[in-house]
Design goal:
Blueprint lengths: L1 H8 L3 E4 L5 H4 L4 H4 L7 E6 L14 H7 L2 H4 L14 H24 L3 E6 H6 L3 H10 L16 E5 L6 E5 L3 H10 L14 H6 L1 H12 L4 H10 L3 E4 L3 H5 L2 H5 L3 E6 L3 E6 L23 H8 L4 H10 L4
Parallel strand pairs: 1-2, 2-3
Antiparallel strand pairs: 4-5, 5-6, 7-8
Length: 320
């Protein structure tokens, strides 16, 4: 506890995402920490916030994705909901947490005061379902699972291509786009049926439409299909694999992947930042640290701890 507080005394920000009450029981709650750092900014980001009847519920990102309503929309009509890939609400919570911290830093710069931030990831996630909320409050209707389809586009989805598990996503909104797609396909007789001429007609016969188009896309590589469709103004993109991301020409051109050597994992790829700043372009110069790699630097150089004290802490197992 003493070491933790000595570190906090040198810190601007403390972030924790334990179940509410845990950090306080450890003796490191906000009211305790501001005794050693009065202008501290502390962000507590957990599932459902620090207060309320469900605040103490532990959980993970997939739980929050379902609680926030995302899982209700993922999957196919008449079938069970599907969980989103990864802890999606965790990713959203990071963005909101960063904004909160930047606002708190600006507040401290202007007033000299710190603050405690209670960031509920549940509430962060709900923010991203506003279109569905509006549809319910205005029209009284609950949006349902649609699979890969879109209410204003047909065809719309991921279609099979040559090879094993090869796919290309495409979508056609305007009737002019449908005419362009029809031409790329070589104007097959089935596509000339008037029932497919309009978006409403294509939506009405969507099952048949997707089956016919899939029969054509299976004859092409996903790359050729994407290029052919994009050349006539149709939205299309291959469904990339992890291996494909590392060989993607666009990412390679922008030097998104950088090679770097790690003490335990050896030579491997790191990604750079997802945006470029003209004065400070992104660079990756150091690998992620190993567990405890910087303990000596933190305690001896940052805290000014004596070598003898540090070695004593190591011998006691306080510091590994």
């Amino acid at each position: 506890m003493e070491l933790a507080k000595r570190l906090v005394a040198r810190a601007d920000i403390v972030i924790e995402n334990m179940t509410p009450g845990t950090i306080g029981r450890l003796g490191l709650g906000y009211q305790e920490l501001i005794k050693v750092k009065p202008d501290l900014i502390m962000l507590s980001t957990c599932n459902q916030g620090q207060t309320g009847p469900h605040a103490s519920h532990p959980g993970f990102g997939s739980h929050l994705s379902s609680l926030s309503g995302f899982s209700h929309f993922t999957g196919y009509p008449g079938k069970t909901p599907l969980l989103l890939y990864g802890p999606y609400i965790d990713f959203i919570g990071e963005g909101y947490g960063l904004i909160c911290i930047l606002a708190a830093l600006d507040y401290r710069r202007r007033t000299g005061k710190g603050t405690f931030i209670d960031c509920a990831q549940y509430e962060n996630g709900v923010q991203f379902l506003i279109p569905a909320m509006l549809h319910f409050t205005v029209n009284g209707k609950i949006m349902e699972r649609m699979g890969n389809r879109h209410p204003a586009a047909a065809p719309c989805g991921a279609f099979p291509c040559q090879g094993d598990d090869q796919w290309c996503a495409l979508s056609v909104f305007a009737d002019g786009e449908w005419q362009a797609l029809r031409k790329v396909m070589g104007n097959p007789s089935w596509a000339l049926d008037p029932k497919f001429d309009t978006v409403l007609g294509r939506k009405k016969h969507e099952d048949e439409l997707e089956e016919k188009i899939a029969g054509w896309t299976r004859l092409l590589t996903r790359e050729d299909l994407m290029e052919n469709l994009q050349n006539v103004g149709i939205r299309a993109g291959i469904v990339n694999t992890m291996g494909g991301l590392f060989s993607d020409l666009q990412l390679d051109h922008r030097k998104f992947w950088r090679g770097i050597n790690h003490a335990e994992m050896g030579w491997h790829h790191y990604k750079t930042g997802s945006f470029f700043l003209t004065k400070t372009p992104p660079e990756v110069t150091m690998p992620a640290p190993c567990l405890g790699e910087h303990n000596r630097y933190v305690f001896l150089e940052v805290l000014g701890m004596a070598e003898t004290e540090f070695e004593e802490l190591v011998s006691r197992g306080v510091v590994e």
